[in-house]
Amino acid sequence: MAIQIFLRLAVMAACLACLPVSAATPGDAEAIPHLDSRGKEGFREFLAAGKHRSFVIAPGGAWAWKGGEPTVDAAVEGAVQACQNGTEQPCVPYVINDKVVFDARRWATLWGPYQSRATAAKAYTGKERGSRFFDLAIKSPAGKPMKLSDLRGKVVVLHFWGTWCPPCRREMPELQKLHQELGASSGVQLVLLQMREDSATAHEWAQQQHLILPLHDSGVKEIGTESLTLANGKTIPDRRMAVAFPTTYVLDKHGIVVFSHVGPIEGWSQYLPFLRDVVAKSGK
Q1: Range of the domain at 16
Q2: I need a surface site. Which of 36, 199, 234, 281 has the fewest CB within 10 A?
Q3: Mean of per-residue pLDDT scores for the chain
Q4: Percent of the chain with pLDDT over 70
Q5: Residue ending a domain, choose from 56, 85, 107
Q6: Does 271 share its domain with 186?
């Protein structure tokens, strides 16, 4: 029932006025946020499909389309359902038939609504959207022992990476750019944890690459170690948190997962409005 209500709201939001709220043209794949090369190819296929058709997207890069449907509603509902199968993030229409219906102002709010303090206190521990992330025992960039929960009150970008991982290495300059754009008083804390190698290896590589980033220490001391330590002293397999590397989570001010992504993120700057929305609205 909840999914059906969500789909109906998506259709209503896109179709009541059916007026484009983005300056993009329907054929401009480069204007679609968070869309990778595969998604752009899918969009070109969508443009060649018959009416009624809809192309939908979600924060993080999920997308889907339906074409040749009997009604606009059927096209939107089918595309949203297909998109939701691959993401926990809400999928919204970008184009319906030949009109861009994407609402850029609403886009940056899609990680919400955020949980209240009372609701967050009852959240289960996990990695899924809406859960409270595992309380890891880590060290600060200065080497001070700490817990992930010590960062409550800040929005946390939690990033699992390793110098042995080519996609991780390629993404690090993007993360440095994000760090610089956020600034020290942004209310967002980057927590970059090295996996399956020691902290010295990560710091040495970052120094060689002239990267200035807040590298926290995951606590891993030996190459190949595949678990991390929790604040309660127990251990947790790293694959329980990251099925592949890199993996990124965004936690709100209560430590609740609002976004996750497996693999490198293209264009971290596109996520600045989302991060600022979490800073402004979460933690109530």
Answers
A1: 2-107
A2: 234
A3: 92
A4: 92
A5: 107
A6: yes
82 Cβ partners below 8 Å, 6+ apart?
A: 64, 65, 66
Q: How many domains does the chain have?
A: 2
85 and 130 co-located in one domain: no
CA distance 21 to 55: 15
Which pLDDT value is given to residue 12? Answer: 44
Provide CB contacts within 8 A for 190, sequence distance 6+: 156, 157, 159, 175, 178, 179, 182, 213, 214
Taken as a whole, the chain contains a residue count of 284
Contacts of 49 by beta carbon, 8 Å cutoff, 6+ apart: 65, 67, 68
Q: Are 160 and 241 in contact (CB under 8 A)?
A: yes
List, for the chain, all residue ranges whose pLDDT scores fall below the cut of 70. 1-24
Residue 112 lies in a domain: no
Flag whether 17 is in a domain.
yes
Structure tokens at 204: 């040495």
Q: Is the peptide bond before 34 cis (omega within 30 degrees of 0)?
A: no
Long-range interactions of 182-190: CB distance < 8 A, separation 24+: 182/272, 182/275, 186/275, 186/276, 186/279, 187/154, 187/155, 187/279, 188/154, 188/155, 188/156, 188/157, 188/275, 188/279, 189/151, 189/154, 189/155, 189/156, 189/157, 189/214, 190/156, 190/157, 190/159, 190/214
Same domain? For 74 and 188 the reply is no
If asked whether residues 224 and 135 sit together in one domain, one would say yes
Q: What are phi and psi of 201, to 5 degrees?
A: -65, -45
Could you tell me if 241 and 130 lie in one domain?
Answer: yes
* Residue 53 belongs to some domain of the structure: yes
Residue 248: per-residue pLDDT: 98
The DSSP 8-state label assigned to residue 163 in this structure reads T
pLDDT tens, residue by residue, 197-243: 999 999 999 999 999 999 999 999 999 999 999 999 999 999 999 99
Can you give the pTM of this predicted structure?
0.90
Q: Which amino acid is at 90?
A: P
